[in-house]
TrEMBL record:
EC number from the UniProt entry: 2.8.1.10
Name by which UniProt lists this protein: Thiazole synthase
Residue ranges constituting the FAD dependent oxidoreductase domain according to the UniProt record: 4-339
GO molecular function annotations of the record: glycine oxidase activity
Pathway per the UniProt entry: Cofactor biosynthesis; thiamine diphosphate biosynthesis
Localization, UniProt: Cytoplasm
Subunit and partners: Homotetramer. Forms heterodimers with either ThiH or ThiS.
Binding site for 1-deoxy-D-xylulose 5-phosphate: G569, A595, G596, N617, S618
Name of the encoding gene: thiO
PANTHER family: THIAZOLE SYNTHASE (PTHR34266:SF2)
Length: 667
């Protein structure tokens, strides 16, 4: 039996799970950053698996099961809070009516009842004249979500759950595959088991595929002059719902906007809600406005929640409930408590496991040098007419060339390829995959922030590359300060772990306050590097080509230095040659030339200088034929390395004839 459970997230899911765990004997602490910001407050409280038209099985089963638990659950809550009013949560199995404006082709659905125009108007007078009929879902209903969450919190606290409000969790510390504590703004919390219920904010802590989906809402009041409630059931229209409460409020929702955590109600959002609501139920146009608000649903890409075990045995996940957090609270609490307290996995649970977002694809990667000079994988390079050099060329082995090379070693890990690439700026995932493959790289850098926000080109990265073959180099792109970079580095480590790279402690450190030139901040970089090294990271800092800074970073324990050739994405080539030469001359750690390389000739040039490796992204991704350019960069890196090992001829001031001048035939 697990004794102490620490729950991260104080919304309805965290509280419902916490209470259930407490009732089964656990000591529970709930950490909440801002109770009022939870999506649970913003919701309308519909219990609507049918009206929401959830067709995905087993999601539909999960939702129906939860709806069926509601009566007992809310009664139990009333009992726990010592309330005489058994309905202090506003639970109301009022059914949901879904009027439509177009006659559907098939009206024989089993769980819904089709009502023709006359019937629906008798059942609910006052509907808009465009309504031609509608569906009646008798088993759906509603709960007053704000009342519910208050009751839940009271019940939780009266049962002895410690609820800590105003606590921001900054990181989840892990060691040897287990969570060992949670770092917060007020100190470290430890427990036997941890439950992550942080809703739309969850991927600030773990790289889970959850992002905010904003919903704007408003409420009206039934005018005092009306004695009877004009609406006694939820109206679920097209893109609009109207939820009448017994306390005379009428909730109207909701927009569904993919705008990140952008706050505020907008005129256009509210206008569209009011227009649709008035079309559906015209008399609302004269009702007094009561309140406007917004919230952030935690949305996964398949719109299903993430429930159950995580990559650590003492960390459980319950998040990503998207439009159905209120509905799914009781069943989530039951399944999660079964899992944590009794190690019982409900047959529904595996369908909601987080790993569905990180299944590895069969993409294979070719390595540029592995004792052979190059692996000429040209399948995805431009089709070449007839036979070309690429078709017929069989590269010699390094050993045949009388060259001794050792692998690239970074923080004790050995790599045969000396070219690293990235995943940004590609026109398609397929192009990125082909380019990574043709580049022969073994290290791919990934912007943690862009993965978190599912920025274009960063969706599904978990599946897009074969992370059992490619070493992930999480980077802190987008961080302007040392503090931000440290936080994002910690997330990056979790991201790599989730993708199966348990021992990956690499981070490409970027601290870039200036958006125009994208030049790194040397002081912030050094500060962040010192801290991250202390935390056990292998730090690969991106820096200006400053030999003194490179030295200092080496002294604080960085694994490499990554001086820029020219500004990021500029393709200008080697503009910092003299300084890079000094850095290479003095460094005892690998020097990776990063940023600014625009063409294979420049890649080769950097390698000829003696750079240990290169990182090239834009020059590949923005080439007209990116997969072909990736291959060219692969060859150029290898060529530059071999040239460096071969010892170039000295530069002479004057011409020196290629043919001997003695023994020539004269006259
Ligand atoms: N549950 C309805 C919504 O999320 O808008």
């Amino acid at each position: 039996m697990t004794n102490d459970v620490l729950i991260i997230g104080g919304g309805i899911i965290g509280l419902a799970c916490g209470l259930e765990l407490k009732l089964r004997g656990a000591n529970v602490t709930v950490l909440s950053r801002d109770f009022t910001a939870a999506a649970s407050h913003a919701a309308a409280g519909m219990l609507a698996p049918e009206a929401e038209n959830i067709t995905h099985e087993p999601m539909l089963s999960l939702c129906r099961r939860s709806r069926n638990l509601y009566l007992n659950w809310t009664e139990k809550l009333a009992e726990l809070t010592g309330e005489k009013d058994v309905n202090n949560t506003g639970y109301w199995p009022c059914g949901i009516l879904a009027p439509v404006y177009q006659q559907p082709q098939n009206t024989g659905d089993r769980k819904a009842h089709w009502l023709n125009k006359d019937t629906i108007n008798q059942y609910q007078p006052g509907l808009g004249q465009d309504v031609v009929g509608g569906w009646w879902y008798p088993e759906d209903g509603q709960v007053d979500n704000r009342a519910l969450i208050k009751v839940l919190r009271t019940a939780a606290e009266s049962e002895g759950i410690i609820f800590q409000e105003g606590v921001t969790v900054e990181a989840i510390s892990q060691q040897q595959g287990k969570v060992i504590g949670v770092q917060t703004n007020i100190g470290l919390f430890r427990a036997d088991h941890y439950l992550l219920t942080a809703g739309a904010w969850v991927n600030q802590l773990l790289p889970l595929a959850v992002r905010p989906r904003k919903g704007q809402m408003l409420s009206l009041r039934v005018p005092d002059c009306l004695n009877e409630l004009p609406l006694t059931r939820v109206l679920f229209g097209e893109g609009i719902y109207i939820v009448p409460r017994r306390n005379r409020s009428i909730i109207i929702g909701a927009t569904n906007e993919d705008v990140g955590f952008t706050a505020y109600n907008t005129p256009v959002g509210i206008q569209s809600l009011l227009q649709s609501a008035i079309r559906l139920y015209p008399q609302l146009e004269n009702y007094p406005l009561q309140e406007l608000w917004w919230g952030f649903r935690p949305a996964t890409s398949d719109e299903l929640p993430i429930l159950g075990a995580s990559h650590c045995p003492n960390l459980t996940l319950a998040t990503g409930h998207y439009r159905n957090g209120i509905l799914l609270a009781p069943v989530t609490a039951t399944l999660i408590a079964d899992l944590i307290c009794e190690q019982k996995t409900d047959p529904l649970l595996p369908n909601f496991h987080y790993s569905r977002f990180s299944a590895v694809s069969s993409t294979t990667t070719s390595m540029a040098i592995n004792s052979t000079v190059t692996n000429t994988n040209i399948n995805s390079v431009n089709k070449l007419e007839n036979k070309s050099f690429c078709d017929i060329y069989t590269p010699p082995r390094l050993s045949d060339l009388n060259i001794q090379d050792s692998p690239l070693i970074i923080a004790g890990k050995s790599f045969s390829s000396r070219l690293m690439t990235g995943t940004g700026k590609y026109r398609s995932i397929r192009e990125m995959q082909q380019s990574v493959e043709n580049s022969g790289c073994q290290i791919v850098t990934v912007a943690v922030r862009r993965v978190q926000t599912n920025a274009p080109g960063h969706e599904g990265l978990g599946e897009a590359l074969d992370w059992s073959k490619i070493w992930m180099l999480p980077n802190t792109a987008g961080c302007q300060t040392a503090e931000e970079a440290i936080r994002v580095a910690r997330l990056g480590r979790e991201m790599a772990k989730l993708l199966g790279q348990e021992d990956n402690n690499f981070v490409k450190l970027e601290v870039i306050p200036d958006p125009k030139y994208l030049l790194p901040d040397p002081i912030g970089t050094l500060q962040a590097a010192e801290q991250l090294v202390k935390e056990g990271f292998a730090v690969l800092p991106y820096i200006n080509a400053d030999p003194m800074l490179a030295k200092r970073l080496e002294e604080v324990g960085c694994a490499t230095v990554m001086p820029l050739a020219a500004p990021i994405g500029s393709g200008q080539g080697l503009k910092t040659t003299a300084n890079i030469r000094i850095i290479i001359e003095n460094a005892k750690i690998p020097v990776v030339v990063d940023a600014g390389i625009g063409a294979p000739s420049q890649a080769a040039e950097a390698m000829e200088l003696g750079a240990d490796a290169l990182l090239i992204n834009s020059a590949i991704a923005l080439a007209e034929n990116a997969p072909a350019m990736a291959y060219a960069m692969n060859l150029a890196t290898v060529a530059g390395r071999i040239a460096y090992l071969s010892g170039r001829m000295p530069i002479k001031e004057y011409a020196s004839a290629s043919s001997p001048v003695t023994g020539t035939i004269t006259g």
